[in-house]
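Notes from the 1:1 (GR / supervisor)

We went over the backlog. Supervisor wanted to see one worked example end to end before approving the batch request, so GR pasted a single chain during the call. The sequence is below; no edits were made to it. Supervisor asked that the structure be written out right there so they could see what the output format looks like.
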Amino acid sequence: MERITPLGRSGRAAEVKGLPGPGRCLVMGILNVTPDSFSDGGRYADSRRAIDRGLELAAQGADIVDVGGESTRPGARPVGLDEELARTVPVVRELARAGVRTSVDTMHAPVARAAVEAGACLVNDVSGGLADPAMARTVAAAGVPYVAMHWRAPSRDMDRHADYRDVVSEVTAELARRLRRLAEQGLDPDRVVLDPGLGFAKRPEHDWALLAGLGSLRRLGRPVLVGASRKRFIGAALASGGAGEVPPVERDMATAVVSGLAAVAGAYCVRVHDVRAGLDAVRVASAYLDHYARHERTPGPVREGAVGTGAVPHA
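Structure output shown during the call:
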């Protein structure tokens, strides 16, 4: 597997048409307006509380607030279209009116269309267009950026599809096929962001391998979003370190570490629950990348016991 070297700004993937960035890895704040999300289900199911939370995320520095009305946790059951629309569209509309850059997290073309009409500037689709054949053409007509995630099956049975010989090469190949198919359906590739789908039909070892192999995804020529926040593989790593069972809401510090590593490895955006910690992480990563680019050091493995060698860790 390729070892990832840190990227300077000149080494980043192309920017996303219609989504200007601040010159660093973007931070997307998660706003679940559902009663059954895996870490904060029910906290923001009320529209007024959800809007207040979205404004809070923006005030904390979120570049994008991602509004989702259907849980995609393992085993989750789908909700009706009318219910998803009722959960998401009013929240998107009020946040957009307040000047908050907002995205909608949905697999359904009618929800994507309504959310964009309400002011959403991006569609984040965990199925990459596989759940709804009309999605690609809907987003193409709307003219907004689109996040296409690696997806093999609905949440209720996705764990049965976590079967890989080489997860990095297989996920890369499957996303390459998705990118080609989306283009065939009229979606401008310059508007597409790719997401390896951590935790979706993946076991912890698959998630870590994908993080270590972000270079393979970068070779597809599109920016990469990393959504690691509070997920099972982080909880498993903390537990294996002697921490015992760590509930999702206590995984934010570890999430920030992963966000920083992803930013150093060239991620375009990280999707997080704790925006302040995520923003700190990517700002530190940006400062490190600038320093690395100026000194142009050649990275290499750190020998055991070596201190102050100038070697650069691989993300």
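Supervisor's comment: The domain at 25-295 is CATH 3.20.20.20 (TIM Barrel).
Batch request approved.
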